[in-house]
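Troubleshooting entry. The earlier prediction with alpha-L-arabinofuranose gave an output that would not parse, so I re-checked the input for stray whitespace and re-submitted. Clean input:
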Amino acid sequence: MRFQPTLVAASLAVFVATAYAADTGAPKLAQKSSYKVGFAQAENNNPWRIAETKSMQDIAQSCGWQLVVTDAGGSAAKQVADVDSMIAQKVDLIVLPPREEKPLIPAVMKAKKAGIPVILVDRNVDQKVAKAGRDYVTFIGSDFVDQGRRAAEWLVKATGGKATIIELEGTTGSSPANDRKKGFDAVIAKNPGMKIVASQSGDFARDKGRQLAQSLLQAHPNTTAIYAHNDEMAVGAITALEAAGKTPGKDVLVVSIDGTRDALTAIASGKMGVTVQSSPFFGPVTCKVAQRYAKGEKIEPWVKVEDKFYDKSNAQASMADGY
Ligand code: AHR
């Protein structure tokens, strides 16, 4: 048979048209009195993650959810496998905080193919590849870029625009690490008297943050500020500063993000400057969004969580917000 370019072009056009026509967007959620819901947690290794998991568990009964909770133990590969097992169990809905932006995309796509809607909470996936409304229902979470910006703006004011900064980054490849860096660094770049002399990952973990701060302080003894992408690493950095004979809050200012009880306590005692809240309490808002979705409402691509700001003026009085 002779090669017929017009026939090939026509078939391709039909194929593309069919593929797009077949993509009716994120799978629907039926209206029922009870749902089997999978919550595929990334790890449960810090107060923030524990509070997030508890928030899901606390809302489950009143929302009519039979909740299946998994813990990926800090491994994106395990989190993908956990989503796989939820698909095999034929859950009605998957609630997912993707540990990293790219590795969890295949899991979202697999759930979509299986007809199971996914709601992303807390962390996002790479927006260039997967899209809310088309591949998953929505992203419920904070504006991480804005959190970094707010931390930096406080630091600019507190230091009069002059600082030597160490940045402790969160988990490499995760949306909060990428965006908190983006927001903070952009503000610092506009202030010629401020310099980020080192920026490395402490994986959002207290002891890794402590160790990293310890070695970066040795390399940069003239450091005057530490920006940690979360409170756990900030608390680790405070321990490292004290071990190095420095007074946190005086010799070195520490700024961070989350709003844990330990951070609020450190602010109240003067060891830490500020923390920008990043709420882990996703249970109630996820329940509401799932109910709206089941009713057939169109869900906005990003359900934004508004965050507070804690400094010396309100840390003590806000202790009940901490976790
Ligand atoms: O995704 C949110 C971040 O993840 C929190 O800031 C951090 O504490 C957690 O591990």
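This one parsed fine. The longest helix spans residues 5-22.
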